[in-house]
């Protein structure tokens, strides 16, 4: 059977990785590196299986081994907040939001923030689906004349949960904060996102103003 272009692409990538591994091995002959362990060993073993499967032309096994290596590598990604934008109303999906029209000045008494959180881990569920769950909390500060921040308080801002048929490491998260009777001035919201699967945290500060 003739392999598809995508399979040939993956095979080329594998050959490049194997070649790089051989070069690194040759360069390290004089000073052998310490034995690998943990995730590095798992990825190395998966690539070794993929190489052996490629040599015997077993394309399904090549795909399975590369998927194992990719999955383990993805689990090592740190949790990050790549984007945090005050918006006009709630967001409507990944990359779909409207920035505040007047800089960071909030109209009304609700602060809406759009977040893009990357490195989200998934928990496998029965039936082949994957569950993602993030907790969001905020620390709120006033901004003084010299830019000094004074903590006003903290607030739990809810939980973001998504179940999908495959892991989705990049998540769009919407945060809505009722500002109540906060006076006019400059503020900073420090948003803390916690991945309930991995336990990792990511933090991003968002300046905003009230008139």
Describe the structure.
The protein starts with a helix and ends with a strand. It has 211 residues and is α+β, with helices and mostly antiparallel strands. The longest helix is centred in the first third of the chain and has 23 residues, at 5-27. It has two domains: 5-75, no CATH class; 80-210, Sandwich (Immunoglobulin-like), CATH 2.60.40. Strands 3, 4, 5, 7 and 8 form a five-stranded antiparallel β-sheet that branches. Helix 1 (5-27) packs across helix 2 (39-55) and helix 1 packs across helix 3. The chain is 27% helix and 37% strand.
The overall pLDDT average reads 81
User: Structural class from helices and strands?
Assistant: alpha+beta
What's the domain count?
Answer: 2
CATH class of the largest domain: Mainly Beta
Concise structural overview:
This protein is an alpha+beta fold and 211 residues long. It folds into 2 domains: 5-75, no CATH class; 80-210, Immunoglobulin-like (Sandwich), CATH 2.60.40.
Give a topology summary:
Blueprint: H1 5-27, H2 39-55, H3 59-75, E1 80-87, E2 110-118, E3 123-124, E4 130-143, E5 149-164, E6 171-178, E7 185-195, E8 201-210
Antiparallel strand pairs: 1-2, 2-6, 3-4, 4-5, 4-7, 7-8
Helix pairs in contact: 1-2, 1-3, 2-3
Task: Name its key features.
about 210 residues; alpha+beta; 2 domains; five-stranded antiparallel beta sheet; three-stranded antiparallel beta sheet; 3 helices; 8 strands; about 35% strand; elongated
């Amino acid at each position: 059977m003739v392999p598809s272009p995508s399979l040939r692409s993956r095979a080329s990538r594998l050959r490049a990785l194997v070649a790089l591994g051989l070069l690194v091995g040759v360069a390290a002959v004089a000073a052998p590196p310490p034995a690998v362990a943990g995730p590095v060993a798992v990825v190395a073993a998966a690539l070794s299986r993929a190489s052996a499967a490629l040599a015997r032309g077993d394309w399904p096994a090549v795909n399975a081994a590369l998927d194992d290596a990719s999955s383990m590598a993805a689990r090592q990604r740190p949790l990050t907040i790549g984007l945090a934008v005050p918006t006009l109303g709630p967001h409507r999906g990944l990359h779909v939001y409207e920035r505040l029209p007047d800089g960071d000045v909030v109209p009304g008494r609700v602060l809406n923030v759009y977040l893009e959180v990357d490195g989200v881990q998934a928990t496998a569920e029965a039936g082949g689906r994957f569950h993602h769950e993030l907790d969001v909390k905020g620390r709120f500060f006033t901004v003084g004349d010299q830019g000094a921040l004074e903590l006003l308080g903290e607030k739990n801002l809810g939980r973001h949960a998504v179940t999908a048929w495959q892991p989705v490491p990049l998540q769009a998260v919407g945060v809505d904060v009722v500002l109540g009777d906060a006076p006019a001035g400059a503020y900073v919201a420090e948003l803390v996102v916690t991945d309930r699967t991995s336990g990792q945290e990511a933090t991003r500060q968002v300046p905003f103003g009230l008139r």
